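Trying the structure run again after the queue cleared.
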Amino acid sequence: MAEFIQQLNLIGECWLNIMTQQSFHLAILFVLLYSINILFWKKSAVFLYSVWSLFLYKAVLLPVIRLPFLRQPVVPAIPMNAFRFETITALGTPSANSSVLISIPSMLFLFWVAGIFTMVFIYFRNERLFYSSLNHSATFKTPANFERLRQQNGIRKPVALRISTNVPAPFTKGFRKPVIYLPESALSWNNHQLNHVLCHELAHIRRNDILAISFQNVLNILYFFHPLVWLANHQINLQREKICDDAAIQILDENPASYGRTLIDNLQSFLVHRRLPLIANGLFFSKKTIIRRFEYLSNHGKEIKMKLGPAQKSIILLIGLFVLITACVNETEQNQTTSPTLSKQSELVVTPDTAKVKFVPYDSPPEPVGGFKAIQQNVIYPQFDQDAGHEGTVVVQAFIDENGNVSDKTTILISSGFEGLEKAAIDAIMKTKFKPAIREDKPVGVFISIPILFKLDSEKTE
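Done. Tokens:
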């Protein structure tokens, strides 16, 4: 059980580090995208949709890059004249009355996992209940111009129309065999209103929006605790509806104001008083959303741009590069940092600039006075790390001067990830007296690297 908790604590710390860094990056990106949204809210919805989509790509990009099986190991630079000693092993045994406690990061990690399972359960339960209410839906009489509208939207697969008293607002369900569900109030719509709604839903089908919505739902589940992800998804949903509004107006070749009146005239009947399924393309959401779409239609005029301009592509490209670079920089920093836990003991560890170390040949390498036992005796396995189950190898690089003293040019080449083990390894080297390296019968200063393995005695722990 103790070993399981130890592994859980390690996973929890790793997860918390990832989420902390990711939240910081997402916050910066959200401020940037929201500023662009304010400046260009009257512009093309396609542009704003593309901009906000970058936020979701960022949410996925960072965890994928940081997965252990995708991470490339980095071997730290060692001076050419560094003499590498054999590995020194320090065995430890946890105290008999010690107990491994679950850390706070592990508790947060377990809360995250439990939240995901809860969200998945609620998600499938709500979807099942909603779709079961559609079992009694009836076939809606296909309008005479429906096939023409379908072909104008470039849709080859058949699209069915159904009507139900349990449908609060128009929405589309299905990918391979899409079905447009209409509310009972559709029976009283005139031809213009019906065409507006059908063209809007056909635009969703042509764009395969149901796949994007499914992707958003997955992120909402994984980031159920993150408000910025939910806000970004709300903006994406709004821009998606605007795009389909533009597509419907373009297909019908109507004035945007006429289409907007369909939204406003039927505002009360279109308001969603009962929730729509999560995996669905819907025409109407809330009162506030409909008003924003009407304002958008009223301000962009008759000209509808469904493609990105050169300037808009440049902005998206720059933001995309920013998203990619920040993720790569984060991974590089993670690989190049010798030990994140050593930040609190910077006065003890001074990282040498190994690139400036000149090669110093020697005839015989330095040796610890008293042999390897001298270093072994100086290694003290911290009791706290023993009780916590911390193990690992620490490779220490030290400079042995002409007098055999260990200089302050001592650092960690390979980190164990535990501050206590690294400090113990450095203390052991600093306490050891060395015989200097010899070149032409004269002592010379050289670098050495010493691996120290901290390992718990499995026989005693059992």
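Residues 1-71+106-134+199-273+284-336 form one domain. Worth checking whether this holds up in the mutant runs.
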